[in-house]
């Protein structure tokens, strides 16, 4: 999932939660049953999770370009620059 996909998923998630909260509140208020408000909110939460948690293709339209891999050197060559940097810091 790329950054734009994350933003889209967050907007969809918040929109569904908001709409289900409003619908649940109005319906629960009209029939005087708070339980229905909770059920509708849980249904909205479930739908929003199903739409936003899996990495659907609509969230992967703008892939990131990564830097090329740096070739790995042997362990001996890697240790020597670190030792010289430590000496420079102490001087």
From TrEMBL:
Coiled coil: none annotated. Pfam families: SPC12. It is found in: Endoplasmic reticulum membrane. Residues 75-85 have a biased composition (Basic and acidic residues). It comes from the Eukaryota. It is a multi-pass membrane protein. The chain crosses the membrane at residues 12-30, 36-56. InterPro entries: Spc1/SPCS1 (IPR009542). Its main location: endoplasmic reticulum. Residues 68-91 are annotated as: Disordered. Keywords: Endoplasmic reticulum, Membrane, Transmembrane, Transmembrane helix. Component of the signal peptidase complex paralog A (SPC-A) composed of a catalytic subunit SEC11A and three accessory subunits SPCS1, SPCS2 and SPCS3. Component of the signal peptidase complex paralog C (SPC-C) composed of a catalytic subunit SEC11C and three accessory subunits SPCS1, SPCS2 and SPCS3. Within the complex, interacts with SPCS2 and SPCS3. The complex induces a local thinning of the ER membrane which is used to measure the length of the signal peptide (SP) h-region of protein substrates. This ensures the selectivity of the complex towards h-regions shorter than 18-20 amino acids. Belongs to the SPCS1 family. Component of the signal peptidase complex (SPC) which catalyzes the cleavage of N-terminal signal sequences from nascent proteins as they are translocated into the lumen of the endoplasmic reticulum. Dispensable for SPC enzymatic activity. This is Signal peptidase complex subunit 1.
């Amino acid at each position: 999932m790329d950054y734009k996909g994350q933003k889209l998923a967050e907007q969809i998630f918040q929109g569904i939660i908001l709409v289900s909260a409003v619908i649940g509140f109005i319906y629960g208020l009209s029939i005087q049953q708070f339980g229905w408000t909770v059920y509708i909110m849980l249904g909205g939460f479930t739908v929003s999770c199903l739409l936003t948690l899996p990495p659907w293709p609509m969230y992967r339209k703008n892939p990131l370009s990564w830097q090329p891999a740096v070739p790995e050197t042997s362990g001996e060559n890697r240790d020597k620059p670190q030792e010289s940097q430590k000496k420079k810091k102490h001087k």
